[in-house]
Amino acid sequence: MKLIHWMSRYEIEKVLLSRLQRFLTKHETYPEPPYWFWEGELDGYSEGDSFCEACIKTIMPDAKYGDNYTGGSAYESDGSCVCDKCSELLQYTLTDYGVNSELEHFLENPLEKSDLENTFTCYALARMAYGVSNKSQIRDFIRIFRFVLTKKP
Ligand SMILES: [Zn+2]
Asked: Which of 5, 24, 31, 112 could join 89 via S-S bond, C-beta 3.0 to 4.6 A?
């Protein structure tokens, strides 16, 4: 008697997820981390804003890391993180709320194969790929790729 191990749907989805994570890690852009200052208000910006390091230096030419500003690593966000001055993409990870709202966005706006050539789109997709944490989120994440995975090249 042969013993055949049938993978459950969930096991298959986890394999697919790890393949998608690997693909996205290879194709995503590498934005710089966010920085922020603690000087109150400056140039119309405030402490809650995120910046690329070049913009911090524009707003505060004499700023020193540790004295006037800090940062340098991604933080959890409810959506994508961009520099509040120049709009350049900055590193982020997604909160659970962020994962769900990104999933909703990509399920409503179907992905095209050509979107996967965009390193910024891959960065956004990768943040979801590493943020999904339950069965239903993993299933929704894979559904985002249904056209890409089934369409012939
Ligand atoms: Zn900037």
From this structure: 31
Q: What pLDDT is recorded for position 110?
A: 87
Domain residue spans in the chain? Answer: 9-30+95-150, 35-90
Segments of the chain with pLDDT less than 50: none
Q: Strand 81-82 vs strand 89-90: parallel, antiparallel, or unpaired?
A: antiparallel
Q: How far is the CA of 96 from the centre of ligand 1 (A)?
A: 26
Place of tokens 């991604």: 74
39 Cα to the center of ligand 1, angstroms: 17
Query: Residue 132 corresponds to which amino acid?
Result: V
Question: What's the gap in Å between 9 CA and the centre of ligand 1?
Answer: 44
Please tell me the distance from the alpha carbon of residue 131 to that of residue 144, in angstroms, as a whole number: 15
Instruction: Say if residues 63 and 69 touch (Cβ distance below 8 Å).
Output: yes
* pTM more than 0.70: yes
How many angstroms is it from 65 CA to the middle of ligand 1?
Answer: 16
In degrees rounded to 5, what are phi and psi of residue 63?
-60, 140
**Amino acid identity, residue 135?**
K
